[in-house]
Amino acid sequence: MILYVQHNEETSCLKIVHFHHKDIPSKMEANAKIPDEAFPEITVDLMFIEGQCDPKNLTALAHHLKIPRFLMFMNSPGSNFRYPVAEFGTRIIWI
Predict the structure, then answer these.
(1) Cα–Cα–Cα angle for 52, 76, 90, nearest 5°?
(2) pLDDT averaged over the chain?
(3) What is the mean pLDDT of residues 53-64?
(4) In degrees rounded to 5, what are phi and psi of residue 44?
(5) Is the pLDDT of residue 51 over 90?
(6) What are the angstrom distances between the C-alpha of 24 and each of 20, 39, 79?
(7) I want to staple 36 with a disulfide (CB 3.0 to 4.6 A). Which of 10, 42, 44, 65 is the partner?
(8) H-helix or E-strand containing 59?
């Protein structure tokens, strides 16, 4: 993901956003620091948002961050994901 951003995007900042319902994985913060330290030329920020990952909340996040949804990436959701991916207006990455 970092290499893709580094070679293909015009940014030096990457925000990892985790929507949750008070169930944040215990090692998520520590794991997010690894790419930030390994690639000092790219700033990696981790954001936790309490709530459901749905098109409405993603639109609100895009507005808050002033980042168009088409410039956002989304991990490929599992088979139980409740929404069609196209409703999010983001690009999909496989990690």
Answers:
(1) 75
(2) 89
(3) 94
(4) -110, 120
(5) yes
(6) 6, 24, 21
(7) 44
(8) helix 55-65
